[in-house]
Amino acid sequence: MRERLPIFTSEAIAQDSTFLNSLPIEIPGGIYTHYLKRVMDCVLAAVSLVLCFPLFLLVGICIKLDSQGPVLYTQTRMGKGGKTFTIYKFRTMSTAETAVITNIGKFLRDTKVDELPQLINIIKGDMSIIGPRPLWVRCIRRLHGEGYSASYPGFIPNVRPGLIGLEQVNRDKLGDLEKAYRQRFELNNQYENNLSWHLDFYVFYRSLIQCRTVCIFALASAVSQIVFLVGGWTP
Questions:
Q1: Structurally, how many domains does the chain consist of?
Q2: 131 with 69: CB under 8 angstroms?
Q3: CA contacts within 13 A on the Cβ side of 233
Q4: Domain assignment present for 208
Q5: Would you tell me which of 65, 154, 175, 219 could form a disulfide with 188, CB atoms 3.0–4.6 Å apart?
Q6: Is the residue at 10 inside a domain?
Q7: pLDDT digit string, tens, across residues 110-162
Q8: pLDDT, tens digit, for every residue of 4-23?
Q9: Gap between the Cα atoms of 122 and 115, Å rounded
Q10: Which of helix, strand or coil describes residue 164?
Q11: Among the residues of 170-211, which ranges form H helices?
């Protein structure tokens, strides 16, 4: 069962008039936002998981050969409305007491391949392909101690968090992410207040340009799947 963060209960949010006033009356987008977006998420994520299976298998083998530990790494992140969920990534750090980035881990991070297991989160309904990036619960509690609260627009996502979002496509302008939370929240709020298929298409297009390597790997994985299937059906 999913838990709610104690400091972000529905009662606490309801008592915060500033937070309520910061929300749009209705998240724009109409039928796309409320119906088509979710359908497209499920279809694209399911197809991507099938086509990327060879890539997942190869990455899993490389991780196991490179260091001891599980293939997948999990974290508790904040989702829509303050609900927490478990996010999946390929493990990029050692499991030793003094954890360090592994050799394959650095490559996975640089190419963004480590994020691909979040396709599972999309199918589960925790995430969307495009949306605000989900914050780590440990960071949320620290930021709360630094003065951020439910009243800050963009702090708590009102839509499903995304695999990609405005933050990623503007990361070169944010600098040190640890010091740029205010700008991140502003981008989250901007995304929610302007949510539409036009904005999602823009984010998706920008992401394709910035993540060319992972796109090439995914395409190669898909091609290998198709060749295998076609070869298997050839008399």
A1: 1
A2: no
A3: 5
A4: yes
A5: 154
A6: no
A7: 888 899 999 999 999 999 999 988 888 777 767 766 666 666 677 778 889 99
A8: 333 333 343 333 334 334 44
A9: 12
A10: strand
A11: 171-174, 181-193, 197-210
